[in-house]
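User: Please predict the structure of the protein below. I'd like the answer in structure-token form so I can feed it into my own downstream comparison script.

Assistant: Understood. Taking the following sequence of 225 residues as input:
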Amino acid sequence: MAEFHALVPAAGSGSRMGSELPKQYLPLAGQPMIRHALAALCASPQLATVFVVLSPQDEWFRSYDWSAFGDKLQPLYCGGATRAESVQNGLLMSELDVDDWVLVHDAARPCLTQALIARLIAELRDDPVGGILAAPVADTLKRAGEGNRIACTEDRNGLWGAQTPQMFRVGLLAQALSSAIEVTDEASAIETLGLSPKLVASDSTNFKVTYPQDLRLAELLLGHP
């Protein structure tokens, strides 16, 4: 029977945060930010293993105590220059069965809940392609023109904001990443094969920390006023 695993690519620097410390290690509610994402994944009884893909030059991960997660958390020092390369390298080093499911999650989405993990697995475990957590776009969308003036208003009907985890069979995802060029998420790679991943409804609390002010919002959501 196919198993479910998680993989967290964490080899990047997060330059938009304006910090010399890689974004995934910035303090959030008294812990490095990545710990919150890893804790959520490790707490899921449906996930057999949680792999975290790190840069070979990572100087920080070993400095923290990860013993609470036991053997379920497996660091892999094989991160690449891009997210896609890190995920591809992680899949190779993990030596998972091609029919197993892998849930790829951003290190910078610290507010992932058990309910969202369970919903994603429940809706996709029998799906022929796989899919992603996503939320319908709520804001009115403006396209910027010259001088940052509004060029037009875009129709948001049918538009969703992609989130993570993104869940696909190991073999299918490895195949997609090996042939994809300049994709920004796993679903984009799957789409290059002519397949259509499923959108699984999430909400705005599962947001990605991108800018310094996002840390405060994440702390509030995690219950640290």
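That's the full token string. The longest helix spans residues 83-94.
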